[in-house]
Amino acid sequence: MKIIICIFFFMLMFFACTSHKEKPKTIENQPPEVSADGINIQFKTNESFNFFKTTKVNSEDISKELKAIGRVGAITVPATQGNRPVLVLFESPELTSSYIDIAHHQINISQIQNINIKQREIELERIKDLVKHGAGTGKDLLEAQMALSVEKTNLANQKASIVEHEVKLKSNGFNPEQLNFTSAGIAYIICHIPENQISKIEKGKNCVLEFASFPNEKFAGKIEDIADVVDNTTRMVRLRILVINNQFKLKAGMFANISFELNEGDFVNINKNSLITVQGKDYVFLKKDKQTFIRKQVEIGQQIGDRILIMKGLQNGDEIAIEGVLQLKGLSFGY
Hints:
The protein is an alpha+beta fold. Helices cover 32% and strands 38% of the residues.
């Protein structure tokens, strides 16, 4: 019995001793080594380095959407009377008046050129012949010359009046000569875009229009004309957009939201979260190896959405930090 008790006591002491083995000591993360005035940041362990997520940069075509507000300046509808097959209905009564006046002046010019002046020229030649043969007087010749001169003056006045109305129409985005050859079922939308975007806009390019009256419908438009004059106050450029309006849904005076897709070109670009700015200079953190980041100064271009164009400092395949960037900034600049 004593032997059994001794054995039990011995086993109890053995398990008690083995249960108090020392736990392994944890290795504390060592701080990174920052050198070259904060340009190099080297981590001592992979665990610390892996806290920072990275991504590779690539060059690609960057497009953005330019939005503008426009208004239906005019629509075309079939004519029921008169010589013209199409009527142009302008949003502005003043433009309507100018367009009608141009038509009247054109009729007058045709009358003066083709009938009045020709008749006066024939009469003048007849009077000259009479005077030559002694059957006419100097007074008759003077009156014939004056009559021809009056008709030519009337012609000049009619042409001057057309120019005045044409300037008014063109300054509002409409070419009266083109309108003479338009067809029914067209809507002309006038909008303005910033001067600094004009290089990215071309005649014939497409756009998308939305109208409050038709919230679930999108209309395809085409840039038909770009104005030759920049507004001196707003620095905006006027565009005329053509939209097919066969169902005559669109009415003159309606407002439109217009979207243009602009191609910025092929650029290296990064996510905006990868960039930091210190004292007016822009930086990213470039991955050098498995445990080292390098602070790299870059020159940036335009921001498009959450992407920033890089003009200088990075190239295809470079790997930069995208998460933990603020922590790297603090290590690099000491705050």
